[in-house]
Amino acid sequence: MIKHRFTLPLQSKGNVGKSTQALLQIFWMNARSVSWQAYDLDNDNQTLSRAIPEAKLVTLSEEPEADFLKIFRTIPEKSVTVLDPQAHFFRVLLHSLDFTHFLDWSTQSAIRTTLLLFPVDDLSVMDELADIVEKFGDSVDYLVVKNRAKAPKTRMYDGSQLEKELAALGAATLEIPALLSDTRNYLSLLEIELQRPLNILEIISDKKIKMDLFHRVILEDWVKTMFDQYDRIAGYLLPDEEAKRVMETWKKPAEEKKGLFSQRRGSKINLSNLQ
Predict the structure, then answer these.
(1) Which superkingdom does the taxonomy of this entry point to (predicted)?
(2) Is residue 215 part of a domain?
């Protein structure tokens, strides 16, 4: 049984939405009452720790392997551990996983790792993702994140051999739709007005924050779309018992989500007048 989950974006390409995904995952876990801890390893931007003060900002020392080892040791303390590293830590992180025999230790400690892969139409990135899958095989779970704001198309990935290999390994897919640009700009102006960073759940839940009604509705619908996806793939992001609880409580049956035009054709007309 998996008692702890470690979610890790593992690739050297920056500006693909790693921090955005981490933020959304944490917002979702808060809403689902899941215990978590998070480490922000991006000292330049500090996106995660600025938006979520509970996330720990870590500055790597001259011996980064020792710093990663300290982080690894804390994973059994919470249900989920989220790591948000800078892209250029990719090689050091890979070396640290090997150096500490992390996967062997995590198996013994009932920890399961989910690697987050962000495909983009870039040959070097796709080759790197293929190397990652080749290296880790079925020793981890995979979540393919398609961030439409950063990569509107993923033509190199869709229908590729890599996609088939990941499907065979049981990979899940998460699609982050692009938030309306006007709403993104409005949120930036709101942060400037309040002179502090805001997280999405705070914006839509704190009624003291005065927000344009149209932008609030757009943001709420966007968050609901993300949470529905997270609920469906809870088994890739949470330990077993937590995933079961979330899926039983929040995952709606398909029949409850039927579209507007799902009824039988002609079911509501008066047939007697046509005879």
Answers:
(1) Bacteria
(2) yes
